[in-house]
Amino acid sequence: MASNILICGTCYRRSKTIEAVKYCTDCEDGFCSECLDFHENMKVATSHHVIDIKVVDEITFNISKFCKVHSDMVLEYFCSDHDALCCRSCMANDHRSCDKIIPIEVAAKDVKSSIMYEEVITDVCTLGTAVSELGDKKKKSVSTLGDSKVNYQQEVQYLQKSL
């Protein structure tokens, strides 16, 4: 794992700092081995997806599973007409006339093998390379600027002495 250590969320809420060994993507929380055992044996969490904690560092963004309008409602549907995720309340209120509302699981099926996904991956790699190149150019510019500063200071000192 990188420099960030994820603490068990359950232990943290009990004022303990124990390192997490697994991460539940549904709870959006880390678990130590003891709390993980309880989590896996709770009926409500049997369908949750638990991943290795080392993978969490590779996750670059986090999408909330809860509706922004109805914070107590879970996002369950995807509206193709509006290209938006929605909960049951939003679906009934705002997307009643929409034709293409499907469960998120159906919309996400085979997404990793789609052409659009491959294009996004390629674009992200290209952007990563561009950011890296810009960082290198910045370092060179700062270095060159520092060298120029030293040269100009020497020239000023030389001129002062000659005057």
UniProtKB/TrEMBL annotation:
<keyword id="KW-0862">Zinc</keyword>
<feature type="domain" description="B box-type">
    <location>
        <begin position="62"/>
        <end position="104"/>
    </location>
</feature>
<dbReference type="Pfam" id="PF00643">
    <property type="entry name" value="zf-B_box"/>
</dbReference>
<protein>
    <recommendedName>
        <fullName>B box-type domain-containing protein</fullName>
    </recommendedName>
</protein>
<dbReference type="GO" id="GO:0061630">
    <property type="term" value="F:ubiquitin protein ligase activity"/>
</dbReference>
<dbReference type="InterPro" id="IPR047153">
    <property type="entry name" value="TRIM45/56/19-like"/>
</dbReference>
<dbReference type="InterPro" id="IPR000315">
    <property type="entry name" value="Znf_B-box"/>
</dbReference>
<dbReference type="GO" id="GO:0008270">
    <property type="term" value="F:zinc ion binding"/>
</dbReference>
<keyword id="KW-0863">Zinc-finger</keyword>
<dbReference type="GO" id="GO:0005654">
    <property type="term" value="C:nucleoplasm"/>
</dbReference>
<keyword id="KW-0479">Metal-binding</keyword>
